[in-house]
């Protein structure tokens, strides 16, 4: 009977040791128990601040990435606008060049017309037109014809045209 009690006590001790070991292993802090391991108010406050900072940082990172994408999109749009404006500028420059060439042709034609007129009639008309146009016409005329026309004009008007003609940038 003593043996029987001894065996029962041994078995009971072994079972108790196993139960104690299982309880101890389940009492180790797992992922869900980590929050509970911070017992002081200060530790919990610091951990809360860290979690908030991590959350804020990830939100800021997302905002920065969104802004980068928006800037890339805007950069592409600006590049397109620059290309479009460059093409328009080139078209305008070409049109201005064509206009200038056409004006030169017309001034040359006017010079031929004035050369065919009598000096007195040409002087009367040139005295009443814009000074720059008159200078441009005189510049396109033969020297002899221009001299006759200037000689037939009023002295003041002829002097102004001569002064303007001498400072003329050749068209």
From TrEMBL:
Record's signal peptide: 1-21
Entries under Pfam families matching the protein: MgtE_N
Which ranges carry the Magnesium transporter MgtE intracellular domain? 108-169
SUPFAM superfamilies (alphabetical): MgtE N-terminal domain-like (SSF158791)
Q: By its UniProt entry, which InterPro entries does this protein fall under?
A: Mg_transptr_MgtE_intracell_dom
* Top-level taxon of origin: Bacteria
Q: Which keywords does this chain's UniProt record carry?
A: Coiled coil, Signal
Coiled-coil boundaries = 54-113
* Record-given protein name: Magnesium transporter MgtE intracellular domain-containing protein
**Which species is this UniProt entry from?**
Desulfobulbus oligotrophicus
